Amino acid sequence: MVALCYKLLTLCGCQENLVESKHHKLARSLRSGVSDKDLKPNAMMRDVLNTLVAYPPTTQLTTEEQDLVWKFRFYLSNQKKLLATVCDYECWQALTKFLKCVNWRLSGEARQALDLLQQWAPMDVEDALELLSSNFTHPAVRRYAVTRLKQAPDEDLLLYLVQLVQALKYENFDEIHEGYNRLFPGRETPVPPLAVEETQIERTMGKEREGREATVDPAAIKKSTSFQQGSRGENIPLARSSSLVESLTTAMTPLDNTSTASHMDLATFLIQRACQNSTLANYFYWYLLIECEDQEPAVKQDSKVRDMYLTTLLKGDTEWQRRRAFLTRQQTFIDKLVKLVKKVARESGNRKKKTERLQALLADPEAFKMNFASFEPMPFPLDPDVHIKGIIPDKATLFKSAMMPSRLSFLTTEGTEYVAIFKHGDDLRQDQLILQMITLMDKLLRRENLDLKLTPYRVLATSTKHGFLQFIESLPVAEVLATEGSIQNFFRKHHPSETGPYGIASEVMDTYVRSCAGYCVITYLLGVGDRHLDNLLLTTSGKLFHIDFGYILGRDPKPLPPPMKLSKEMVEAMGGVTSEHYQEFRKQCYTAFLHLRRHANLMLNLFSLMVDASVPDIALEPDKAVKKVQDKLRLDLGDEEAVHFMQNLLDLSVTAVMAALVEQLHKFAQYWRK
């Protein structure tokens, strides 16, 4: 009897699959292509299509919805953007919905889809990022996405570069290899070890250094790579072999969608663009390097892409070889710096004694076979536009936190100081991601003429265990309150004004209000947790900003955290909840929230490309990461409803009792740590 039931159940399952398969073939009948071209939806059906297209990328279309998109595919292909009826933010691209409806295992259906892809109204770059996620594996679809990326200036590519390197995980390496060989013929020689490579490059460049004067001209160093500005502002070497110039020029020429010559895989595209821009070259190397360290030994795809990239630089002209030499020297410098900070960490004694040891080692020209106080100038990995030539030993210090990161003052070729923090024993990729998103949101808001006085400081993970952070001269809000009594007293001390509000310069108060609003909204959207007055910093010019992003996407070690970090001390600095400045703060929060919702597509696409990255709080629940950000954006609400929602969030945050209690406990913990 049990066996009989099993057979019946199995038979039912097969029958259901057959029905679904037959339904799919009928709905997608290849014979209907001619008649489908003339189909136009009526008003009611158009509203339904608008709603479907407006679905965020995490929403799965039902079978009926997929059939509807397929039925009106020709109509949709001529509509670049549809306005959603359920929300006022900019709508998602219809093309991505159509491509998700295609059964790529059916050759006829796939062929139809690819033909239509070439006729579809071109999608925006920010929408094309979705086509590089793991949801789209067909090589032609991914190459189409790259053709759209070609339209992006280097400045925008830099904003997406972390995610584009992550997207290499979903590429077909055979396709990469073929594409690379087409663009860079004869460059398959394996890359030599760093030590050998450095010797070879130094020998090539040696003659250029002969007779160089002892005094280095900062301007010469800054432009030592002989760049000229391209049409999009990218840096292009002046001298290069004619064959490579021809290859790169052809690859860079914008072509229409119908040209197969414009198709290129993602890895080859990134190598090509990185070779032509010094800033992209720097970050592409470091983003790749950390993925090589983190990847499974059996995969090694990122390592292969890195080797192809290094080989291209090595076999280029002198300028490209010099650029590779800089990368090699950066790597050597960081390796030796790691050894130095490890030695300091092993020293016995308190923080003061360790700081003295750090300064002594930096001043010793024989330590680790490198003179840290004076070395040949090179681009700083954290900020390659800055060329550094030494660390000032006497200004090196250690912070009081558990890891005791080092604060280092670098001397630049322009005679200025660039202060950075070097952390060892910490994976900075999560901080790097959050600062990337803050930088992106800052640019998006500025394009809407909304300057919220944000402080998107630089972060670069140089390994899974160490990295750099840009140091911004500032004080923790907790320290400001302890020494000055209030934030207003702090501002009055540095920027007094007889005519300004509360005796403070009006521009300082405006900066403070705007920065509070910006970080309240952004940290809410990113679900930043563990907020306390020691990781909120304040500058004398009025800028408030957040640091230490160890908890994101809703994670928080404290019980019942408020939706936003908005303490009573922060509100009192604005003049209290009844003041004009507090009302302006709320207004800026509403405006920022509405603007950022309109760019939800871009933000969600970037997070979707990070689901397989080794970012701790994404790795915990990778399948829910994008949805967590989407939920914070409240795309189900119209603009007016979204403003009311934000009003309620602010009211809840201001009156949060538990947050005040936790803040007191944190103060006790900090006291005993001292």
TrEMBL record:
It holds the Pfam family PI3_PI4_kinase. One of its GO terms (molecular function) is 1-phosphatidylinositol-3-kinase activity. Gene3D superfamilies: Phosphatidylinositol 3-/4-kinase, catalytic domain, Phosphatidylinositol 3-kinase Catalytic Subunit, Chain A, domain 4, Phosphatidylinositol 3-kinase, accessory domain (PIK). PROSITE patterns: PI3_4_KINASE_1, PI3_4_KINASE_2, PI3_4_KINASE_3, PIK_HELICAL. One of its GO terms (cellular component) is phosphatidylinositol 3-kinase complex, class III, type II. CDD domains: PI3Ka_III, PI3Kc_III. The keyword Lyase does not apply. InterPro entries: ARM-type_fold, Kinase-like_dom_sf, PI3-kinase_type3/VPS34_cat, PI3/4_kinase, PI3/4_kinase_cat_dom, PI3/4_kinase_cat_sf, PI3/4_kinase_CS, PI3K_accessory_dom. Keywords: ATP-binding, Kinase, Nucleotide-binding, Transferase. SUPFAM superfamilies: ARM repeat, Protein kinase-like (PK-like). It catalyses: a 1,2-diacyl-sn-glycero-3-phospho-(1D-myo-inositol) + ATP = a 1,2-diacyl-sn-glycero-3-phospho-(1D-myo-inositol-3-phosphate) + ADP + H(+). Residues 392-658 form the PI3K/PI4K catalytic domain. Residues 35-312 form the PIK helical domain. One of its GO terms (biological process) is endocytosis. Its EC number is 2.7.1.137. Belongs to the PI3/PI4-kinase family. This is Phosphatidylinositol 3-kinase catalytic subunit type 3. It comes from Timema tahoe. The lineage of its organism: Eukaryota, Metazoa, Ecdysozoa, Arthropoda, Hexapoda.
